[in-house]
Amino acid sequence: DxxxxxSPSSLSASVGDRVTITxxxxxxxxxxxxxxxxRPGKVxxxxxxxxxxxxxxxxxxxxxxxxxxxxxxxISSLQPEDVATYYCQKYNSAPWTFGQGTKVEIK
Amino acid sequence: xxxxxxxxxxxxxxGGSLRLSCAASGFTFNNYFMHWVRQAPGKGLVxxxxxxxxxxxxxxxxxxxxxxxxxxxxxxxxxxLQMNSLRAEDTAVYYCARVEYGxxxxxxxxxxxxxxxxx
Lengths: 107, 119
Prior knowledge:
The complex is a heterodimer of chains A (about 110) and B (about 120). In chain A, about 0% of the residues lie in helices and about 50% in strands. Chain A has about 110 residues and is mainly beta. In chain A, the strands form two sheets. Chain A has a six-stranded mixed β-sheet, with no helix packed on it. In chain A, strands 1-3-8-7 form a four-stranded antiparallel β-sheet, with no helix packed on it. In chain A, strand 4 (about 35-40) and strand 5 form a beta hairpin. The relative contact order of chain A is 0.34. In chain B, strands 2, 4, 5, 6, 9, 10 and 11 form a seven-stranded mixed β-sheet that branches. Chain B has a four-stranded antiparallel β-sheet with strand order 1-3-8-7, with no helix packed on it. The radius of gyration of chain B is 13 Å and the shape is globular. Chain B starts with a strand and ends with a strand.
């Protein structure tokens, strides 16, 4: 099975900072990659699919890039409401594996 | 408004069984593939199972294969997860989630139901 590895596991940044989270697949998955945001105590929310397509209603400070094995989620200007854990997920075929998550905090 | 509402969680002893339900409303249920995803307390998201729109095709994570069965009743707009031979490591919040047209995952999630496996 393809493994999904996120880095870093956690990060702390200041409001307004640019934040980058990486997700690496152990084999190529084309662009079948989604990103989710899970705020504390809340249900996960889809942010990006097809590696770079922003879900409707998601702020434009979020962006995704990559293809094949290496993917990136970028928050261009971190806001207090972005405190959350972010997950990537492959969906080209079963199993629809998630990364282990990246916890984002405000410094 | 799309709604997914899980129920059926609770405390069960190791080796026991439980059936989760996910009641869907606000959309044409029989047009959508559905998944179950779980999250152990303080841990990450883990994909569990998937079922096709007509129920004819199912897939499972290796960790639950042979113990869990996903099914659906399109006349009742309800998704199910029958969980047998439960283990402590199955303790988690279980979410149902809808796959969007174009195989785009999880535009909608339920609020989750907690399953605790403990003696």
